[in-house]
């Protein structure tokens, strides 16, 4: 025997049923939906005929869900949510909004507050777009875009980009030389470049880097691909590092890190920040929104 499919159920019927169950009466549902009460009653009557189930008990002043109605309510709400998502997705595609975006971010280029503010606004503005956030230090955003694994990159400015890249300079970030509070370097009133040579230099190295560059400041260097891991290692006294000001600020405030009073660099060292994307990519509405909003966040220009 062939299974009966409920393909005849109309969205308007389900909506009338769900709203009536939620607001408690046919008249209130009619006001909520901007329809005549007779229309609401008719839609629900037809739904009961189509399903073969009595969904509301009408023996009292106001209708109450029957056991069958209670049982179907959650399923109806799930179907309505699916209808709404389908409608939103269709509208987005017609408007040129991407289905998904992969964003590769170097944490050195933007504070977490700026990034989270941008992502919260993106979630509200583009509810149908799936976002994949990749944390990628150094030149890894460019590597991921070149390999087709990311659509947009936010990174420290490079000296040059291949012809297949588009880029936009959007601001500046600053680096501080820091060390754990108990490290020998923290006890010095002034730190010269020579003072650093005999102490382990902790550095960021992206996964795309071929080999590791030697340190200009120290005879020994270790490399890590995570800013948070690097800072934890510095806090625990393993060595010193130059790290983004916005990432070390909380640890300077709680005393677990101290700023090195270097004689060779009297102010935080600046780095440019760029947004990059492949020249071959046609930017959709969501990508353009991300580029504009991230640029405003990092540059401070609203």
From TrEMBL:
Gene3D superfamilies: 3.40.190.290, Winged helix-like DNA-binding domain superfamily/Winged helix DNA-binding domain (1.10.10.10). The keyword Thylakoid does not apply. One of its GO terms (molecular function) is DNA-binding transcription factor activity. Keywords: DNA-binding, Transcription, Transcription regulation. Residues 9-66 form the HTH lysR-type domain. The keyword DNA-binding applies. InterPro entries: LysR_HTH_N (IPR000847), LysR_subst-bd (IPR005119), WH-like_DNA-bd_sf (IPR036388), WH_DNA-bd_sf (IPR036390). Belongs to the LysR transcriptional regulatory family. This is LysR family transcriptional regulator. It comes from Simiduia agarivorans (strain DSM 21679 / JCM 13881 / BCRC 17597 / SA1).
């Amino acid at each position: 025997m062939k299974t009966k499919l409920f393909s005849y159920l109309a969205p308007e019927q389900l909506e009338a049923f769900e709203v009536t169950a939620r607001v408690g009466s046919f008249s209130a549902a009619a006001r909520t939906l901007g329809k005549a009460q007779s229309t609401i009653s008719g839609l629900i009557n037809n739904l009961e005929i189509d399903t073969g189930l009595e969904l509301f008990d009408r023996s009292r002043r106001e209708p109450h869900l029957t056991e069958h109605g209670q049982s179907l309510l959650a399923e109806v709400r799930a179907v309505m949510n699916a209808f709404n998502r389908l409608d939103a997705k269709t509208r987005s595609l017609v408007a040129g909004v991407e289905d998904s975006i992969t964003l590769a971010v170097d944490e050195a280029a933007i504070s977490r507050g700026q990034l989270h503010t941008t992502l919260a606004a993106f979630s509200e503005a583009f509810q149908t777009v799936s976002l994949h956030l990749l944390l990628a230090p150094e030149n890894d955003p460019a590597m991921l875009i070149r390999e087709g694994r990311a659509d947009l990159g936010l990174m420290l400015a490079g000296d040059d980009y291949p012809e297949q890249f588009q880029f936009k300079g959007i601001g500046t970030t600053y680096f501080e030389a820091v060390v754990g509070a108990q490290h020998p370097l923290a006890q010095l009133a002034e730190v010269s470049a020579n003072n650093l040579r005999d102490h382990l230099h902790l550095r960021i190295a992206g996964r795309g880097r071929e080999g590791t560059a030697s340190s200009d400041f120290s005879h020994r260097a270790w490399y890590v691909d995570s800013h948070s891991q690097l800072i934890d290692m510095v806090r625990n006294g393993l060595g010193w590092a130059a790290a983004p000001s916005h990432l070390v600020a909380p640890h300077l405030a709680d005393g677990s890190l101290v700023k090195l009073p270097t004689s060779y660099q009297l102010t935080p060292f600046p780095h440019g920040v760029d947004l990059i994307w492949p020249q071959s990519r046609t930017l959709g509405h969501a990508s353009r929104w991300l580029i504009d909003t991230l640029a405003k966040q990092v540059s401070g220009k609203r």
